[in-house]
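DM from R.C. (forwarded with permission)

"hey, sorry to bug you on a friday — could you get me a structure for this? deadline for the figure draft is monday and I only need the backbone to look sensible"
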Amino acid sequence: MRTIVAGGGLVGEQVARALESAGHETVLVEQDRARSAELTAAGHRVVTGNACVSEVLEAAGALRADVLVACTPRDEENLLVCFVAKRHLELPRTVARVNDDTNLWLFDDTWGVDAALSWPAALAALVGEPAASLHRDLRP
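My reply, with the result:
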């Protein structure tokens, strides 16, 4: 599967690494040139630029990608990246990181988001799960 990860911070790099380990062809899009150089030196494929710009996403392979993961530290940027990817470039699937739970309601099909993940909400949901299901879910 071809994936694009928008945002090359720690979370973006970890997502890219996990996807690459699973055999996905992955390209990171990172705006900061110094960080792009670090990611490239670490062995990642990187396009330097603003992922909110369709030409940058196209340079990352958006016209043939299967999934885009927006995981910058800014919710408004993640929404815009998903919107551009889904509505303008017609990517089949978009996934977004939600940084502030109060914005979770925005992350829906209106903005071109197919799936959204809020770490605080996900962790809080796990706390409410019965111990047996937690154990089952965490087994390899």
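R.C.: lifesaver. The chain has one domain: 2-138.
me: no worries. Residues 131-140 have pLDDT under 50 and may be disordered.
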